[in-house]
Amino acid sequence: MCASVKCNIRGPALIPRMKTKHRIYYITLFSIVLLGLIATGMFQFWPHSIESSNDWNVEKRSIRDVPVVRLPADSPIPERGDLSCRMHTCFDVYRCGFNPKNKIKVYIYALKKYVDDFGVSVSNTISREYNELLMAISDSDYYTDDINRACLFVPSIDVLNQNTLRIKETAQAMAQLSRWDRGTNHLLFNMLPGGPPDYNTALDVPRDRALLAGGGFSTWTYRQGYDVSIPVYSPLSAEVDLPEKGPGPRQYFLLSSQVGLHPEYREDLEALQVKHGESVLVLDKCTNLSEGVLSVRKRCHKHQVFDYPQVLQEATFCVVLRGARLGQAVLSDVLQAGCVPVVIADSYILPFSEVLDWKRASVVVPEEKMSDVYSILQSIPQRQIEEMQRQARWFWEAYFQSIKAIALATLQIINDRIYPYAAISYEEWNDPPAVKWGSVSNPLFLPLIPPQSQGFTAIVLTYDRVESLFRVITEVSKVPSLSKLLVVWNNQNKNPPEDSLWPKIRVPLKVVRTAENKLSNRFFPYDEIETEAVLAIDDDIIMLTSDELQFGYEVWREFPDRLVGYPGRLHLWDHEMNKWKYESEWTNEVSMVLTGAAFYHKYFNYLYTYKMPGDIKNWVDAHMNCEDIAMNFLVANVTGKAVIKVTPRKKFKCPECTAIDGLSLDQTHMVERSECINKFASVFGTMPLKVVEHRADPVLYKDDFPEKLKSFPNIGSL
Amino acid sequence: MQSWRRRKSLWLALSASWLLLVLLGGFSLLRLALPPRPRPGASQGWPRWLDAELLQSFSQPGELPEDAVSPPQAPHGGSCNWESCFDTSKCRGDGLKVFVYPAVGTISETHRRILASIEGSRFYTFSPAGACLLLLLSLDAQTGECSSMPLQWNRGRNHLVLRLHPAPCPRTFQLGQAMVAEASPTVDSFRPGFDVALPFLPEAHPLRGGAPGQLRQHSPQPGVALLALEEERGGWRTADTGSSACPWDGRCEQDPGPGQTQRQETLPNATFCLISGHRPEAASRFLQALQAGCIPVLLSPRWELPFSEVIDWTKAAIVADERLPLQVLAALQEMSPARVLALRQQTQFLWDAYFSSVEKVIHTTLEILVLWSNERPLPSRWPETAVPLTVIDGHRKVSDRFYPYSTIRTDAILSLDARSSLSTSEVDFAFLVWQSFPERMVGFLTSSHFWDEAHGGWGYTAERTNEFSMVLTTAAFYHRYYHTLFTHSLPKALRTLADEAPTCVDVLMNFIVAAVTKLPPIKVPYGKQRQEAAPLAPGGPGPRPKPPAPAPDCINQIAAAFGHMPLLSSRLRLDPVLFKDPVSVQRKKYRSLEKP
Q1: Prediction pTM value
Q2: Whole-angstrom distance, CA of residue A521 vs CA of residue A542
Q3: Other C-beta atoms lying within 10 Å of the C-beta of residue A120
Q4: Main-chain phi, psi angles of B197, to 5 degrees
Q5: B506 assigned to active site
Q6: Rounded to an integer, what is the distance from CA B332 to the centroid of its chain?
Q7: Rounded CA gap, A462 and A537, in Å?
Q8: Cβ within 8 Å of residue A47, ≥6 positions away
Q9: Hey, is the C-beta of B19 within 8 angstroms of any chain A C-beta?
Q10: What one-character DSSP code corresponds to residue A587?
Q11: Three-class SS string for B51-80?
Q12: Hey, of B191, B572, B578, B586, which one would you mutate to test binding to chain A, going by the most A CBs within 10 A of its CB?
């Protein structure tokens, strides 16, 4: 369009100069263009071979069409599997060297159908679950289709259930994968290992150095830090919707729902039932079900029929006993029902035990103590049981509920091993979301009293009140523990006074000029701050005595993770207006201190500048107000602790500085401060401020004791 | 005019077709030039099978529960775990009791210290028959003697072989089912959940107390080096990781720049300490860095980190693969200040809690075994509540006062003496303060400790001074957890002391709380009138009320048993917000507190 406008403007000037030879020229040009157009158009709609046709074919294909690979009987078989394998011996980490963002890249081999010399297939092509698993990996951030950049390889040979495959031939199929290389960096998923009669606890397919994500490992077969122990997926997870049932006592204290238990175990359980009566329920397979009723979904006790897995929700504790295999799908059902699993399977490696803290969600009882199980469980306090019920359900939701959850947790564990410094923390793995969001973790958790000799850095924010500033500097410099004074010059239009004009003080004085007149500049983590304690002080606070400031610093040393200030303020809930209100009356409570003069840890400057949530920082700079309230919110939110108010001081302004029309100014001031509280509370999503009824005074403050013997005799009044 | 219009339309047509040509042609040329890229999402990756619905489940319905059954497997040799190789039945009743085989021949100083610390612990027993754990000290190579198989060996069942230095003796007997507590064991020989990894202790490691962590400042300083590297012959040098060059040798092409500085024997003053060598050097360097608050960066350690069964080392150290050095360096440079701060504080916490003395190391080891031998899951130790309190009347022995009575269901304990008289508002206010500081002791009457140059020992005074370090437990709030500690964690010697010299109990309780919190107690105001009138001390009214002074040597005995002086002084008192302010009494909530 723009082009045509341009033409219209230029047109009248150009055209009159045109001659006949030009016309011919134009016609030729026009035909060339026309030809070009036709050619291009043809090319557009011509079916051409240059675009690969397989990528839209890949989308929808039938499993019956997958290529068939014939395995000669004498093709190589991998070594049995090296029990001594560890990440540093059997895993080639160099392949993961160029993965950005500390995330491994996973390649999946294309699906093939393997047959032996006689054309008999080696295994079922792929199960529903393994298909889901590969799809989950393929849809995740881990996936790469570039075999050269991959750090981990997943064969599409399905070994989830050992019973469905021919062991030797499956191993041969593995060995001919294009990057097999003794199985280095290859990951196999298996949930049902072993077979009759002795049921090995790990997949019997020879696999050399390949990693095994297995369900049912025992301590004898599990290679700590190399293999990954995974759950046995329960298909009921997808079929049955068990709504979460809140924690608390349930009808049965202990329940056993497994069928096909070893007779010895069943005897033990039944003995428990006899001893403890109604509170123990031992279920078994139903023998008298009518036709068409799914036997997997029913359990019976004598002639009573129960729905499975719904019945699990009626019990506080559910027994998970070893069967022929150590890993049992019932564990998943039990967790789903929010029933605390009582795992009785010696040497069983619980799923994802490398990262999950099973003590929080289960009780593991040695087989020889089965008869004591009831009394062991009874000794657990109710509060802890409820905690475990919640935890059990959360484990299921996060790590058991789908094949996708299992696959991604497995990859995350391997990822964490390769980039341990970027690993997911214990809390992230184990804390339910409610706990994660609800808990505060104090960033300054170590009760470390900094040495008094370190002192503090005073930061004075100033614009142009030089005279008052110099008085503040002189006063503050009398405080024994002051180690440095930093003046933040917030005026861009005026230079700070010359060096010679500044007061001569005993500690270094440094002036920092700012780029913009912002209130936030007061809370910037300047490199010049070398102490942990910071005293923020306004350029007009001259009423605080040296004793008061020194005492304030010593109080801060005892509470280095809190804001320690002088005048205290309070937030209140206004029931009429239905919102928060700022209160500066002299009340019995405080929840904030003014930062016109306050001690705090330098770290909070970093938090204020870089981690303040939402648009609070901009709000403060735009309104030129409430930076102190924002700091109070920030510290309380991150530490979960209240401020410390020091000494009786209630206000900053000295009598002679009270404004002439103080009252009306005060009114609008209060309204604006209340607005700040409401705004910040909505940004934080909570009211983090804590109300306390104490303040800190020197030990002998106002005691009947000779003044001259007191350490801090000169504590100012209101 | 007409031709003009025609030309105009010609012009228009021409430019329009040019535009079209450029658009279409350019586009196809682009497609020709670039290889076809699969569209993101649907078209790449694992195929969506047309017949996916027909796929069968990996386990047929009924197959799972119908599993054939085999009898329980018996443990076969090789590896051991707690269930299969340890007989917990012996630990019932009294809990974990430990018998130590007496040493044969000359023993080293370290061993003497270990023996002393076990014998002083509450786990110790004299009889091998009553013990649930038999402990065998594996002797040092220096002494030239190796232990022979003890009498009650029983294939090593319920035995713990303690080895402070890696493999000093050729194995004169098979370890069998014995657990091994060894300094920095190799990952290959370590049996998780059964063996215990110990720290590598230097010869001069103190028996008790131990030097505190050396971190003086939480946050890294602008001037301090980011990375310290271990030197081959011991000591450290600091390096600047600001440069892109890889600062450690061997694996990088570039030479370390001239920014590298001098060697130091002392503890490194840096944010991260790189430890890549092999044990035992690396293991001792590790402990050094931990004490200094220098975050250990371990490159592929082949040894198990100390107490790895119970300590989450990812919160205090960085473990990385030595084969990916550049990634590690980048990770260190990019680490957020928040994470650095957390890691540093954790190094100090761990050092002080578990590593700073031989006694702490031994007790941690025994605690781990207690943890394992316990049948029921352990509850969290600091339950959080803020409920009203229960007052318990203790009698008989003095230390019974601190027994964790099962009737105490609340967290707060107000310990009272029949002689102490407190007003309701005093108690109310003190309880409110305690709720803000539940881990500390909140009391009314205070006393201080001081170093007495003349006697070369600690002194004790109840004089009113500008500071205090103890509150009297005859009127104080504290968490019931300290009752548990008092009864179950104190060395026997200290409990005996408390029973024999009742006045020592106050001091002892203050020591316990201070050792745990590393903070002074809190003082709240106490009505002065009664403070002067009511004799708190049995000694009768004097010019100034004084609590009973503890036996003079009490504080020194306790300090010796602790190995250090945990008490800290405070110069503040927590008062109600309007305390003694010249404002209307009507405003004040705790006005009775300030009656003259």
Answers
A1: 0.78
A2: 21
A3: 9
A4: -90, 125
A5: yes
A6: 23
A7: 10
A8: none
A9: yes
A10: -
A11: CHHHCCCCCCCCCCCCCCCCCCCCCCCCCC
A12: B572
* For A260, nearest residue in chain B (alpha carbons): B66
- Write out residues 325-384 of A within 8 Å (CB-CB) of B: 325, 328-330, 346-347, 359-360, 363, 365-369, 372, 376-377, 379-381, 383-384
B383 has a pLDDT exceeding 80 = no
Q: Is B569 left (phi over 0), alpha (psi -120 to 50) or beta?
A: beta
| DSSP one-letter string for B245-305 | S--SSSS-SSPP-TT---EESS---EEEEEE-S-TTHHHHHHHHHHHHT-EEEEES-SBPP
Whether the Cβ atoms of residue B576 and residue B429 lie closer than 8 Å to each other? yes
CATH no. of A236-287+295-400: 3.40.50.2000
Q: Give the Cα separation of B236 and B277 in Å (integer).
A: 13
Segment B564-575, tens digit of pLDDT: 899 999 999 999
> Which residues of chain A are in CATH 3.90.550.10 domains?
456-651+661-696
Q: Residue B436: phi, psi to the nearest 5?
A: -75, -25
Q: Which of B31, B467, B577, B580 to mutate to test the interface with A (most CBs of A within 10 A)?
A: B577
Local structure of residue A440 (DSSP, 8 states): -
- Class of CATH domain A456-651+661-696: alpha beta
B218 to chain A: which residues are within 8 Å by CB? 444, 446, 448, 450, 532, 560, 601, 603
Question: Is B14 in contact with A33 (Cβ distance < 8 A)?
Answer: yes
Active-site residue identified among B255, B393, B506, B553: B506
Q: A423 in contact with B at a CB cutoff of 8 Å? A: yes
Question: Closest Cα of chain A to B500: distance in Å?
Answer: 33
Beta-bridge partners for B443: B476, B523
Q: Is the pLDDT of residue A434 over 60?
A: yes
- State whether B573 and A11 contact (CB < 8 Å): no
Rounded to the nearest integer, the mean pLDDT of chain B is: 74
User: Taking CB atoms and an 8 Å limit, are B519 and A30 in contact across chains?
Assistant: no
Q: For Cα atoms A569, A574, A580, give the angle at the middle one, nearest 5 degrees.
A: 55
> Given A33, A235, A426, which is nearest B21 (Cβ)?
A33
Opening angle at CA B234, ends B233 and B240, nearest 5: 100
8 A C-beta contact, residue A112 and residue A69: yes
Distance CA B288, CA B208 (A): 18
Instruction: Give the SS3 label for residue A549.
Output: helix
Domain(s) of CATH 3.40.50.2000: residues in chain A: 236-287+295-400
Mean pLDDT, all residues of chain A:
87
Encode pLDDT of A694-707 as tens digits: 999 999 998 888 88
ipTM for this model: 0.78
